[in-house]
């Protein structure tokens, strides 16, 4: 088991129960998607996993090690679990060149020679289908789709085992979305990385995941294999979602 | 192209700010080379030339022949109201460029005795007139620039570093640390600046030599100035730390210190640079105010503030208006810093707006 989310609760002042008892297991190679309407707690779940938000209750266990503090994530976890954020316009610091941005991903890695650095950068840029000569350029010179590729490249720098993509294509044009999704699909073949793919769009989810968790008001209401879920959804909310996305009735 | 280059390109398009930058550059260069530029040292005085008006520079002899630049001697007498009257005599003293004069240590190392402009004694050259003890106001302004122009810069530098650190820490970490640091800031900001200045000056013994007084003033000014900067920086950090690139850096295992130094403070630079340029005038005026009321730089050392203390008497201003020259230089410097500060802010803002990156 790669990652276990164990009965996590998180309430924001309001009070908003963003996570209301979420449990989830992710096995290696088992690409998991989380779907649910906006505001159901998907981002909060990703942030709890990454240690950006402290849960009120519950725990996150990675590779058998419970992650209690920010410090406990600084070692192996920070190398093997990487996150791609929704907004490519704010996830890259405008003050740094692509080279510096990629290099920062290696901060906690053992020291490498400049040559090794460069090879690694070329490799990840190739994985996301970007030319290597962009290293000296700055984020503002790129489009949203290109930035998201750079953000993905940054996440791949340490060859992570788990890649959390929080609405990674939601803010992009449909065409660019398709390109990035195709690139991610291809990546699945080329690297042993497990996707934790978050989206409010069922169509997107179907392409990339093996298992799908449906989230509703801070809970996971259904967690099943992709085909089971799409063909025979058991929870009424899943049926509503499917109907909205594909415009068809599901037989009860 | 990096952000700094873009901002710089925008900045140099602002003609007025560029001129201001040049003016300041010239003033600072003059302060650096004060010993060479000035005809007289700080200790020079001539009791026979009390409030002597600016010296006229002649080029022709009295019968109309070219004689090169020279000045005439002056004779002082009193009119019926016992006011001084200066009349030019027939003696001529040619102006010498890089002629020998009083010796000095150039830049504090090399002993030299050449002056850009001088006349042989007993002739005197007063480009901007003389003060009550017959001292050359031009020379004293240039010498005084060393104090007046640097004291603000050092003061602002210290309070800038303090403000960045305190504001950065308070804003990034939040919680109790933030609370304590901000209450401290408020305590400093609560007291009106000028009274705080006086109170702090009163706490410093008056047996200090001039260098110590200089350092004391720098520290006092910095102590007053850091709080305002810290508060603004803190506000910016509060919003900056929620940026996705900061969160990304955290998930990649960067330490808090690395994040603050790489992703938080650099984003406050645009504001801080402008704020620093806009704060310098306050420091210059603070020094002037202290020296003006006799609590700052003491005779024979000059600062623009202590030179002005002579001008606190309306009758003197009436008969020797040139003693107000230091005020002109203070105003000029303050204006230049303000223009540059405004231009810096403008140079950064449009770009950040366009990128949705404004703090
Ligand atoms: N930092 C926060 N402070 C207060 N409320 C928050 C915060 N983050 C999220 N929320 C609230 O928690 C709920 C879930 O948010 P989120 O996890 O972002 O949903 P999603 O990513 O599924 O759209 C929302 O109602 C949101 O308003
Ligand atoms: Mg979200």
List keywords for this structure.
heterodimer; A: 252 residues; alpha/beta; Rossmann fold; six-stranded mixed beta sheet; four-stranded antiparallel beta sheet; 9 helices; 10 strands; 35% helix; B: 359 residues; alpha+beta; MetI-like fold; 2 domains; three-stranded antiparallel beta sheet; two-stranded antiparallel sheet; 12 helices; 5 strands; disordered C terminus; binds adenosine-5'-diphosphate; binds magnesium ion
Descriptive account of the structure:
The complex is a heterodimer of chains A (252) and B (359). Chain A has 252 residues and is an alpha/beta fold. Chain A is built from nine helices and ten strands. Chain A has one domain (3-97, 160-246): P-loop containing nucleotide triphosphate hydrolases (Rossmann fold, 3-Layer(aba) Sandwich), CATH 3.40.50. In chain A, strands 6-7-8-3-9-10 form a six-stranded mixed beta sheet, with helices on both faces. Chain A has a four-stranded antiparallel beta sheet with strand order 2-1-4-5, with helices on one face. In chain A, α3 runs parallel beside α5 (144-156) and α4 crosses α5 (144-156). Chain B is of the alpha+beta class and 359 residues long. Chain B has two domains: 3-32 and 140-354, MetI-like fold (Orthogonal Bundle); 49-134, no CATH class. In chain B, 59% of the residues lie in helices and 13% in strands. The A-B interface holds A 47, 50-52, 70, 73-75, 78-79, 81-83, 85-87, 89-95, 97, 104-105, 107-108, 138, 140, 151, 154 and B 1-3, 243-245, 247-255, 258, 262-263, 266-267, 355-357. The structure holds adenosine-5'-diphosphate and magnesium ion. The site of adenosine-5'-diphosphate has 11 residues of chain A, from β2 and α1.
Q: Biggest sheet of chain A: strands side by side, in what order?
A: 6-7-8-3-9-10
Share in helix of chain B: 55-70%
Total count of domains of chain B:
2
Query: Counting H and I runs of at least 4 residues, what is the number of helices of chain A?
Result: 9
Number of domains of chain A: 1
- Largest interface, chains and sizes: A-B, 32 and 23 residues
**Radius of gyration from the alpha-carbon trace of chain A, in angstroms:** 18 Å
CATH class of the largest domain in chain B: Mainly Alpha
CATH homologous superfamily caption of chain A: P-loop containing nucleotide triphosphate hydrolases
CATH topology type of chain A: Rossmann fold
Small-molecule binders here are: adenosine-5'-diphosphate, magnesium ion
In round numbers, the mean pLDDT of chain B is 86
Low-confidence stretches of chain A: none
